[in-house]
Amino acid sequence: MRDEANGVGHVLPDVLRPGLKIVFCGTAAGAVSAARGAYYAHPQNRFWSALHAAGLTPRKLNPEEYNELPQWGLGLTDIAKNVSGMDRELPPGALGAEACAALEAKIAAAEPKWLAFTSLSAGRRYLGRAAGFGEQRERIGRTRVWVLPSPSPTAGWNWARHEHWWRSLADEARDRPTPPG
């Protein structure tokens, strides 16, 4: 469900459609991603390597190939669609209730099996509470919620200790049916 009509002003377009296994959601596009017009485009970002290592894509994709993700059941979005930068650089309210409600509406319409936040910060902003990695108790309709460690280079100091959460999500998405809603 790529919303061209409502995508005006979006830093990066959503990659959403019904039937996806996992939709990955960050807080906002980073400066490099915004400049390149591609998700997770910083050369040191581990997102594309993590997808491949977890077996979610058959090869490591380049950031500019992000529109190819739906063929493997994957999608992309951000909480804040109209701004870019590091979380601390975003304008007040960019990750607030209105942005979270818009995200929830998009996910409810597309109904992916999983919504996976690509950082604790993104997950906590949406959930409105402290959260750890892994599956969360909240659902958006039938969509289950998962919080992943950030693949960002600014979070690289703890990547080796936490990257297994990406593989765990891939295993869950492959092996477990969606519970009835």
Describe the structure.
- With 181 residues, the chain is an alpha/beta fold.
- It has a single domain, classed as Uracil-DNA glycosylase-like domain (Uracil-DNA Glycosylase, subunit E, 3-Layer(aba) Sandwich).
- 28% of the residues lie in helices and 14% in strands.
- The protein contains six helices and five strands.
- A five-stranded mixed sheet has the order 2-1-3-5-4.
- Strand 4 and strand 5 form a beta hairpin.
- It starts with 21 loop residues before the first strand and ends in a 6-residue tail after the last helix.
- The N terminus is likely disordered.
Order of helices and strands: EHHEHEHEEHH
Compute the number of structural domains: 1
Largest sheet: 5 strands, mixed
Termini Cα gap: 21 Å
The CATH architecture assignment turns out to be 3-Layer(aba) Sandwich
Determine the CATH topology: Uracil-DNA Glycosylase, subunit E
Tally of DSSP helical segments: 6
Order of neighbouring strands in the sheet with most strands? 2-1-3-5-4
CATH-defined superfamily: Uracil-DNA glycosylase-like domain
CA radius of gyration = 15 Å
Mean pLDDT figure: 91
Helix content: 25-40%
Class by SSE composition:
alpha/beta
- Count of extended strands: 5
Parts with pLDDT < 50 across at least 5 consecutive residues: 1-6
- Oligomer type: single chain
Q: Into which percentage range does the β-strand content fall?
A: 5-15%
Lay out the secondary structure.
Elements: E1 22-26, H1 31-36, H2 47-53, E2 74-78, H3 97-110, E3 114-117, H4 120-127, E4 134-140, E5 143-147, H5 159-162, H6 164-175
Parallel strand pairs: 1-2, 1-3, 3-5
Antiparallel strand pairs: 4-5
